[in-house]
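Input sequence (347 aa), recorded before submission:
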Amino acid sequence: MDRDDARTFSYGSTSSATAVAEQPQGDIGDKGKPVLVTGAAGLVGIHTCRELTRAGWKVRALVRDPEKAVIALGQVPVDFRVGDVRDAAKVRAALRGCGAIVHLAAIAIERKGEHYSDTNTAATDLLIEAARLENVERLIFMSQNGAASKSPYSFLRSKGMAQDAVMNSGLKWTVLRPSVIFGAEDAFVNVLGRMIRLSPGVFPLPGGGTARFQPIAVDDVARVVRLCLEKRETIGRTYQLGGSIPLTLRQMTERILAAMGTSRRLVSVPVSAMKPLIALAEKLLPNPPVTSSLLDLLALDNTVPENALTEVFGIVPVPFAADELHYLQGITAGSAFKSMMRRHRTG
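Predicted structure, C-alpha cell format:
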C-alpha cells in the first residue's frame, strides 16, 4: 500500500445509468460528492452500499480485505479504498473529496490485535478528526441499542463513548441505535443456526431464553441510512430502530428452527452454568460462536419502545419470520464447524 494514500481499485461499472434513482420526500443531500462508508464489507455495509448506489449516490467503500470486498460488493458500483479505520493516514486519504460519512466499522467480539477501545472508540475519534481536516461535515454513526459511556458492559461502553464523541464533534451528525440486526450475512442469527446444526437433538437456552430483542432486517437499516442522508431534519438526532415486535430468545430460536426445517428440544440452562463452557470455547476455538462478554448482554432488554423505523421513517418492518430466514437453510454441520475454526485477519 502507498504510505500516504489509501489504495484504490474498482470492480464493475460506475456509470450512474446503472443506479435506480428514487424520489425521496423532503430535503435531499448532496449527491455530487462521494459518501465514505466504513466497514463496507460487513453486514450493514454491504446492504448500505447497495441501497445508496441504487438511489444514485456515489459510494466510496473503505475496506481492509480487498478479496473479501470484491466477493461481497463486486457487482455494486462503488469506489474501493483499502485501509484500516485505525490508520489516520488511510482514513484521511479515503475521506478526501467526500461529502459525507456513514461510519459502520466496529467489532462485537475482541480478538488478538483488535480491541473495543481501538476499533470502536479510538477509531471514531480518529475519523472525526480526519473529517474536520478534510472539511467533511455530515456523519451518520451506527451505534447500538443500550450503548452508554458508563455501561458496565465493555462492548456497549465502547460504543457509548464513540457515540458521545460523535454528538460532541460539532459535525452534522445522526446517530442510529438498532436492536439486533438480521440478514444473510449476520453474525447473530447465523451463529444460532450454526449452533443448532451442531447440537445433538437438544439445544440449550441460556436463562431459559427469556432475553428480549426486537430484531430488525438489515435492508430496513440500510433504508434508514439513506433517508438520513437525504433528509436534513435528521441532523442532530438520535434514532432507536427495531423490527415489528419484541421477541424472546426462545421465540427467535423457534422461528430459526422453522426456517431451517429442523427441530430441537429447547432446554433451559442457567447462564452461570454456561459460562465455563463458553470460556473454554474462547480458549480453544479461533472463532468461538459466542463469548462471555456477549453472554452477559443477555441480562439487558434489547427492545425498542419508541421505534423510529415506523414512527419517524414510515417503514413497514420486514418480519422476523421463517420465510425471511431462508438463508439459514444453507447451514450444514460442516460449514458450522469450519466457521468456528476460521481465523480472522486483523489487518
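Checked by second reader. The domain at 7-179+216-243+303-317 is CATH 3.40.50.720 (Rossmann fold).
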